[in-house]
Design a protein that fits this description.
- Pfam families: ACAS_N, AMP-binding, AMP-binding_C.
- Keywords: Acetylation, ATP-binding, Ligase, Magnesium, Metal-binding, Nucleotide-binding.
- It catalyses: acetate + ATP + CoA = acetyl-CoA + AMP + diphosphate.
- This is Acetyl-coenzyme A synthetase.
- Strand 14 and strand 15 form a beta hairpin.
- The radius of gyration is 24 Å and the shape is globular.
- 32% of the residues lie in helices and 21% in strands.
- It has an eight-stranded mixed β-sheet with strand order 12-11-8-6-7-14-15-23, with helices on both faces. A seven-stranded mixed β-sheet has the order 5-4-17-16-18-19-20, sandwiched between helices.
- Helix 4 packs antiparallel against helix 5.
- With 655 residues, it is an alpha/beta fold.
Length: 655
């Protein structure tokens, strides 16, 4: 692979003049600064981007690796940095959030408003006894209140754990229990694509499942007024709680290592991991990457379409843009309602200048735009756009080119940002004023990030040869631990054979010419479906927990044109192998079961049945074969070690 000249998109100098990092020489100077004095580089930026209550005296503490500490003796408050600081700088009247509801209704909130609302909720939480270090689960849809809830927790030093509104009662219960949350903040319902969907009812179900005894209070934001159950001793309306609360709330000044949030994410084995992030280092990278990767300027309107339930919504909605005093769009709905022109219409209406979305969304909108001019980006005025971004999964060059041409009018750089829940912010990404672009490549490490590609023993592989993506040095916004599972943290991310490097879990390759990185996908049993991270084992456990029906299950991913990867499950039932209509019926039942156990995003796209799974004589499932079957490939691999080759024909059959 080589990035020949034809595929390279140079920096559009005219539009990028004045960028925060302008030109490759500036980029290289930052890389060199970090190399020359790593701790000093991050300390300089931490002073520039973060306002500290007590200044730190030390940058990196690596004395207890891999439990790294950054800026440890400094104290600060994230909510102060995102809100008060902007008001003090004279931005009180500036719009912080332009909220567009599912039905198109728009609400604008200034920095002063957002500060007042955050303080009132923070005071309400304190009145309920929530204090520094307590965990609060937030189970809400996209809303101003969702951002306010996160900021209010940060203000009082409570550690939030946001759970995506699409997760089931069972998943929510697991996360509440794992975090030991004292409070859940939710809404009566959420509205998406014209439909009202329950939230509070799912919280009730989660708590009823047991194990959530730590929860004393549930605060409910009234979004729709839809009917919901009520436990008077536990449940409180948000508007009642905040009424009469002062609009001032002294921030809780916390140490830089204080856990700002936990966010559960899927791993290759076992239950989801509670990724723990810090306060100081995290905020630094959130603000810094928002500024440099998106080249945010005072008059920009930034729109990140992610949900606050995922890390992208944390760093690039709840924290990064607000820390910079930017104006951002927050959207409640879905890209296809009322029609597939919604994104383009919103860019036009709100004059969005920096737009950040996922390849899955682009790919699904391409199909719909091809089918109808009315929802094609060309039917909208997108001239406000300056920079486009992509996140969550590899963007295939065809989708990249379409996005560049049709949405960006050929003039907007696309920043393909590689990062993870664990990394807190961008790791490998173009800087739009500096980095020439190659479709499908996330280009170069963010200045200061020591990303590299190594073999199984941690030795560098030459460019042009694929390998394991690692980060050789700790960085400020890295995961601090897995909540309550320090050993798992060490073994998952710092395996002894990799010389103490951080293991990302992805494969990658660098171009022999310019050294650009291309991510080749996960190297573990983690799937990426529509940019959502799912563990194959989690889905397998959900299937086999259907003990009435399922004896055994194996789950693999297969490439999918729209969702990137699709979930394909191979199932052995307790009874006879079903065929025809019976197979279809049971497959539907099992898909719904998984939806209830984990959430709709985990439902397998396809379920196939066999009398057994392909196993070696020692009983090991041959997943390689299952991956080929899922792709409908002819089996060319050696099957001589297979105990039961006859099942291959069964498992090749679609229902
Ligand atoms: O496989 C990589 C993929 O998404 C994984 C991280 O998922 P999550 O923790 O849910 O965070 C998603 C939002 C940052 C990675 O291990 N991934 C993320 N961004 C990219 C990507 N793969 C290729 N290119 C990207 N830009």
């Amino acid at each position: 692979m080589s990035n020949d000249a034809a595929t390279v998109h140079p920096v559009p100098e005219a539009t990028m003049q004045g960028a925060h990092v302008f030109g490759m020489a500036a980029h290289q100077a930052l890389v060199a600064e970090a190399e020359a004095d790593y701790g000093g580089y991050w300390a300089r930026l931490a002073r520039e981007f973060v306002t500290w209550k007590t200044p730190f005296t030390k940058s990196l503490d690596d004395s207890n690796a891999p439990f790294f500490k950054w800026f440890e003796d400094g104290t600060l408050n994230v909510s102060y940095n995102c809100l008060d600081r902007n008001v003090e700088r004279g931005l009180g009247g500036k719009v912080a959030i332009v909220f567009e509801a599912d039905d198109g209704q728009v609400t604008r909130v200034t920095y002063s408003d957002l500060l007042a609302r955050t303080c009132r909720l923070a005071n309400a939480l304190k009145a309920r006894g929530v204090k520094k270090g307590d965990r609060v689960v937030i189970y809400m849809a996209m809303s101003i209140e969702g951002v306010v809830a996160m900021q209010a927790c940060a203000r009082i030093g409570a550690t939030h754990s946001v759970v995506f509104g699409g997760f089931s009662a069972q998943s929510l219960r697991d996360r509440i229990e794992g975090a030991g949350a004292v409070m859940v903040i939710t809404a009566d319902e959420q509205v998406r694509g014209g439909k009202q969907l329950p939230l509070k009812a799912i919280v009730d179900d989660a708590i009823a499942l047991g194990g959530c005894e730590s929860v004393k209070d549930v605060i409910v934001y009234r979004r729709t007024g839809g009917k919901t159950g009520w436990h008077p001793s536990r449940d409180h309306w948000m508007h009642d709680e905040t009424e009469g609360q002062p609009e001032v709330c002294e921030p809780e000044w916390v140490g830089a290592e204080h856990p700002l949030f936990l966010l559960y994410t899927s791993g290759s084995t076992g239950k989801p991991k509670g990724v723990q992030h810090s306060t100081g280092g995290y905020l630094l990278h959130a603000a810094l990457t928002t500024k440099w990767t998106f080249d945010i300027r005072d008059d920009d309107v930034f729109w990140c379409t992610a949900d606050i339930g995922w890390v992208t919504g944390h760093t690039y909605i709840a924290y990064g843009p607000l820390a910079l005093g930017a104006t951002e769009v927050v959207f409640e709905g879905v890209p296809t309602y009322p029609d597939a022109g919604r994104f383009w219409k919103m860019i036009q209406d709100h004059k969005v200048s920096v737009f950040y979305t996922a390849p899955t969304a682009i790919r699904s909108l391409i199909k719909l735009a091809d089918a109808s001019d009315a929802v094609h980006p060309k039917s909208y005025d997108l001239s406000s756009l300056r920079i486009l971004g992509s996140v969550g999964e590899p963007i295939n060059p065809a989708a990249w080119e379409w996005y560049h041409r049709n949405v960006g009018g050929g003039r907007c750089p696309i920043v393909d940002t590689f990062w993870q829940t664990e990394t807190g912010g961008h790791m490998i990404t173009p800087l739009p004023g500096a980095t020439p672009l190659v479709p499908g490549s996330c280009t170069l490490p963010f200045p200061g990030i020591a990303a590299a590609i190594v073999d199984e023993t941690g030795n560098d592989v030459p460019n042009g040869q694929g390998g394991i993506l690692v980060v050789k040095k700790p960085w400020p916004s890295m995961i601090r631990t897995i909540w309550g599972e320090a050993d798992r943290f060490k073994s998952s991310y710092f395996p002894p054979e990799l010389k103490g490097y951080y293991l990302a879990g992805d494969g990658a390759i660098r171009d022999p010419g310019n050294g650009y990185f291309t991510i080749t996908g996960r190297i573990d049993d983690v799937l990426n479906v529509s940019g959502h991270r799912m563990g194959t084992m989690e889905i397998e456990s959900a299937l086999v927990s259907c003990t009435d029906l399922v004896a055994e299950a194996a789950v693999v991913g297969r490439p999918d044109d729209t969702t990137g990867e699709a979930i394909c499950a191979f199932v052995v039932l307790k009874g006879e192998r079903p065929t025809g209509a019976a197979a279809k019926k049971i497959a539907t039942e099992l898909r719904n079961w998984v939806g209830r156990e984990i959430g709709p995003i985990a439902k397998p796209k396809e379920i196939r049945f066999g009398d057994n799974l392909p196993k070696t004589r020692s009983g090991k499932i041959m997943r390689r074969l299952l991956r080929s079957l899922a792709k409908d490939e002819e089996i060319t691999q050696d099957t001589s070690t297979l105990e039961n080759p006859a099942v291959l024909a069964q498992l090749a059959e679609k229902n």
